[in-house]
Amino acid sequence: MSESGELIIEPKSGQPADACVFILHGLGADGHDFEPLVPALPLPENANVRFIMPHAPRLPVTVNGGMIMPAWYDLLAMDLGRRVDEVQLKKSAERIQALIEEQIDQGIDSRRIIMAGFSQGGAVAYHAALSFSQPLGGLLAMSTYFATADSIELAEANRSIPIEVHHGNFDPIVPETLGRAGFDKVKALGYPVNYRQYPMAHALCPQQVQDIGKWLSERLAS
């Protein structure tokens, strides 16, 4: 698994992509983790959406005894504050922003690019989207937390980005209190944000998949 690699799924319509959805996986996984999600999403048949699922680099993770595994950044403590290596997190966010720039250079309107992330990937998605210099189409934060809320430099271009926050109320890995805290933070900052709670652990559930499909369809309708 290379640091620069990513899984790319082109539109099932066979037509050139006119929209793009990035999905960032969680700790210990890779871009293939969310590959089964794509065909399960209830998107319109004529939706020309490219899905890009980058692979995280392999790093030693402190809370896992220094074990080397796919990680967007090091987790220093599993406390309620989720102490993280912010330098590594921001480096990962910059890498994702460079991938977004590549899509824009290929002709995709930035407002038709959606950023999504799960768990660790969600923390990177928060930072990458809210500090990006061009307006994006939306941010989906799944079972995650806003790790850089107190240090991020918010981009004016994305001060009105629609944000969707999803969390399971039985999550033993990332407590729902952290998901709520992220929601409360962006709401206090004035972002248009919606919160959805699901009866699940640290995962996705069928109702959530339906909701994601509907949300993406609304964001990319034109």
UniProtKB/TrEMBL annotation:
Top-level division of the source organism's lineage: Bacteria
Alphabetically ordered keywords of this record: Hydrolase
Record-linked SUPFAM superfamilies: alpha/beta-Hydrolases (SSF53474)
GO molecular function terms attached to this record: hydrolase activity
Ranges where the Phospholipase/carboxylesterase/thioesterase domain occurs: 13-217
Family: Belongs to the AB hydrolase superfamily. AB hydrolase 2 family.
PANTHER family, sorted: LYSOPHOSPHOLIPASE-LIKE PROTEIN 1, LYSOPHOSPHOLIPASE-RELATED
Name under which the protein is recorded: Alpha/beta hydrolase
Organism: Halomonas llamarensis
